[in-house]
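Thread: sanity check for a docking pose with zinc ion

Original post by kr_44:
Hi all, I'm comparing my docking run against an independent structure prediction. Below are the sequence and the ligand SMILES. Could someone generate the full complex and paste the structure tokens? I mainly care about where the ligand ends up relative to the chain.
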Amino acid sequence: MPDLWEKKYKCPICGSTVISKRVFSEKVRIKRYESDLKPIYEGINPILYSVVVCDSCHYSALESDFEMSVSPILLQDVRKVQGEIRNTEILNFAKERDHKTAIFAYALAILFYEAKKQPCKVAEMYLRMGWLYRELDDEENENKALAKALSSFETCYLNTYIESDKEPMILFYLAELSRRFQKRDDATKWFSTLVSKYKNSTSFYLKAGKERWQELREK
Ligand SMILES: [Zn+2]
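Reply from moderator J.T.:
Ran it for you. Here is the predicted complex with zinc ion included:
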């Protein structure tokens, strides 16, 4: 059985049909998680295929919201991004993706989420981009991407409405990324917010957050 299948989407900006590969869900096997909850997959890595890219107009977004229409007020900024994109013809996003192609897809999605004023999505894109650089052992670019993820999570948390099912994840990354970049006071503040606000939650992020906070206090 193959790992990938092809799904068709309709680009909400130019109306083209976009074909993008998806990983069969039964092929996704998580072996374990790293300390920042990055999954280590056995076999194919579905993170390579999370972003759908329109090959006609370059519009890019996560698979889960690619087809959502864009508010007319934001269209001008989206078009501005489209006018600035160059050199995508060397990459084929519809085929099997290597890390370089996937990182480029995330970079495109970041530009569009910025244009659409969605800092929480920008933060998640930088986080996954950092993880892809980690898999390439490119520590310099991993740190750059994760530093951007942290500042985007800060903008997201402080300036946008957060749904309560998303908040434990956002607090976890505010804390964990602050810890990574030696911002100990910030890390303590965010871990304690996570643990006190969600103490009765069954969230995976709460459990991991308690462990990381404990480690931080023991140091
Ligand atoms: Zn398009």
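The first helix runs from residue 72 to 84. Hope that helps with the comparison, let us know if your pose agrees.
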